[in-house]
Amino acid sequence: MDGAGKPLPDAVVSVEFTTFKAITNAQGKYSVGYVPGKVKVLLQKAGYTSATIPLDIAIETTFPAAPVTLHKIPQHTCEVCIGFQGRTLCRSASAGDDMMAIQSARDDACKSLVTDKTAISLCGQTPPARVTCQEH
User: What would the pLDDT profile of 83-104 be if each residue is shown by its tens digit?
Assistant: First the structure.
C-alpha cells in the first residue's frame, strides 16, 4: 500500500536471490513462488521507498503477507535560467532534491548555450538569473 493506505498497483515483488517475481495488481495483491528456508521478499516501485519482508518458509503454503507501506519519494523540479555570453536560456530538471535538480538544469542550459568545454565550465560557475523550484 502507499503512504495513504491505498493499494499500490504495479509494484515489483521478488524473492531475493531467485528468479521468482510478481507485479501487484490494482488491489495491491500478488502471488509469488518461494524457496524453502529463510528468504527475503523485496517490494519495489519506481518513485517509492522499497521494503524487505524476512520469512522462514518450511513448506509450501499460502498466506496473506503482512501489510507493507511504500512511501512516495518527493520529486523536486527546478527551472534555471542562465545568462552567458549575451544569451539567456532556461531549462528544467527533476531530481530527489532541489540542489540536484538545479545542477542538472544548469548543466543542461550551459551545454545548450555553448559547446566549448572551457566555456561550459565558466557557464556552470555563472550565478543563475532565475531559479524556481517545486516539490511534487
Answer: 999 999 999 999 888 999 999 9
- Looking at residue 10, its amino acid is D
HSE (CB half, 13 Å, CA atoms) of 17? 7
Which residue ranges make up each domain of the chain? 1-72, 76-135
Q: Side by side, which strands form the sheet with 87-95?
A: 87-95, 76-84, 130-135
pLDDT in tens, 36-74: 888 899 999 988 899 998 888 887 766 667 788 998 888
| Top CATH class, 1-72 | mainly beta
